[in-house]
Amino acid sequence: MSTARRRITPAERRARLVRRHLLTPSLRAKTPEEVADALVALHATDPATVYLSFAARCAEPEVAALERALYQERTLARIRCMRRTVFVLPHGLAPVAYAATARPLAAKQRAQTARQLHAACSWDERRYAAVEAATLAALAQRGAAGAAELAADVPELREQIVTFPGKPWGHRPCPSGYGGESRQRLSAPVLGVLAAEGRIRRARPLGSWTSAQFRWAPADPLPHLPAGDAKTELARRYVATFGPVTVEDLKWWTGWNLTDTRRALAATGAEQVALDEGTGHLLPEDVDDRGPATDVEPAAALLPGLDPTAMGWRHRDWYLDPEHKKALFDRSGNIGPTVWWEGRIIGAWAQRRDGRLAWEPLAARLDRTARAAVEAEIARLTAFLGPTRVTPCYRTPLERRLAG
Questions:
Q1: Across the strands, what pairs with 90?
Q2: In terms of Cα–Cα distance, which of 310, 289, 300 is closest to 240?
Q3: DSSP H or E segment with residue 114
Q4: In the beta sheet, which residues pair with residue 329?
Q5: How far apart are CA 56 and CA 85, in angstroms?
Q6: Which helix (H) or strand (E) holds 214?
Q7: DSSP annotation of 364
Q8: Averaged pLDDT, 8-35
Q9: Chain-centre distance of CA 111, in angstroms?
Q10: pLDDT band at 177 (very low <50, low <70, confident <90, very high)
């Protein structure tokens, strides 16, 4: 009996990507929930990424629909999970992602914060617990509040400490990044731990949908799931959406160590396939599914910086020419806005100060069909943005140049 593994070509992988990531008009979603479910999770370090990832994959995208799912119906949850990064994901998947990736980190964050507060402010455990209790009570009274409002209610939150003492480098351009020595109100670490533990949640931000100044609100407790079961389920969801994947892909996407990655992948029952990068893995029901390789309509897409498709794999050469990485990524490995055609990155786009969208192809040759499809997506995204101006949280060389 033959033991040869099924080979999956880069072209077939790109066809699977187009279909499963909703990057073709006939498969566009109707709701934000459908988009989040299809992609497992939407990268949310940059608040605008969530909306632009949704708009690229929805037949008739509306900001109000996503805001309703996030802040009113709460069918989508915004939590810090994979790679210690904030994602928006289906409400039902939030406990899985938390147990699989974030719960141990939350415990470490609490211990680290307690040590920091003791060293800087002489807070013992009783004082720390009292401030947390007062903060939660104030938040319950207000319903939703920003850090400054809570600091007005709880005086201890207005105290300041020095962070990263002696570090010479400056701040990164994104509020979630770390920088050099600075002074910080105690509201930041206290609220950060409560959020990491799932005791409070990010509510509607101050300002527009591009704002990162989130209010806070009380959160419903997440059900406690066994870590092993949660890791298996998260790995299964990832392989179903992004497969075929390598062990390195799953390890990078989740932030797990190699042992946990291999154990979770094995528990999914995934089967081995042959890829250009080496051994890949697919769920058993997908191994013999050859439909995606032969039944994909030509499709263009404009994806934002940090989009979950562009950031979905550790190995990217099958959809991104290595020669283009320098133009499309910043120094920390964050990808900027990209233009896609038939499952491959072919260029970049940016919004100029006057609101117009500009793009530049990186591919050597693009036929009229591809260019027309990209222009159609430019028009579609322009209509979605309206008067809104979006500057990526992480700027990349080509995006900066196109923005002017």
A1: 76
A2: 289
A3: helix 103-121
A4: 335
A5: 22
A6: strand 214-218
A7: S
A8: 96
A9: 26
A10: very low
* Tokens 């989040």 -> residue: 36
Do 59 and 28 contact (CB within 8 A), yes or no? yes
* For helices 47-57 and 368-385, angle between their N-to-C axes, nearest 10 degrees: 130
- Backbone φ, ψ for residue 190 (5° rounding): -65, -50
Do residues 243 and 280 make contact, with C-beta atoms less than 8 angstroms apart?
A: yes
Contact 270, 281 (CB under 8 A): yes
pLDDT score, position 288 = 80
Crossing angle for the helix pair 227-242 and 258-267, nearest 10 degrees?
70
Q: What are phi and psi of 384, to 5 degrees?
A: -65, -45
- Give the whole-number percent of the chain exceeding pLDDT 90: 88
Q: Are 47 and 212 in contact (CB under 8 A)?
A: yes
Alpha carbon 355 to chain centroid distance?
Answer: 25
Q: What is the DSSP string of 313-348?
A: -S--TTTS-GGGHHHHB-TTS-B--EEEETTEEEEE
pLDDT in tens, 196-205: 999 999 999 9
Query: Are 251 and 238 in contact, with CB atoms under 8 Å apart?
Result: no
Query: What are the CA-CA distances from residue 228 to residues 97, 191, 283 (Å)?
Result: 11, 28, 18
Compute the Cα dihedral for 359, 37, 41, 50 and give only its sign. positive
Residue type, 172: R
- Go through the chain and tell me how many residues it has: 404
Of residues 274 and 296, more confidence is placed in 274
pTM reported for the whole predicted model:
0.92
* Confidence at residue 172, expressed as pLDDT on a 0 to 100 scale: 45
- First-last CA distance in the chain: 61
What's the mean pLDDT in 159-176? 59
pLDDT at 169 over 80: no
Give the 3-state DSSP-derived string for 212-255, with helices as H, strands as E and coil as C.
CCEEEEECCCCCCCCHHHHHHHHHHHHHHHHCCECHHHHHHHHC
Please compute the mean of the pLDDT values over residues 366-372 and round it to a whole number.
93
Give the sheet arrangement for strand 42-43, strand by strand. 42-43, 86-90, 76-80
Per-residue pLDDT tens digits for 281-303:
999 999 887 655 556 788 999 99
φ, ψ at 271 (rounded to 5°): -105, 155
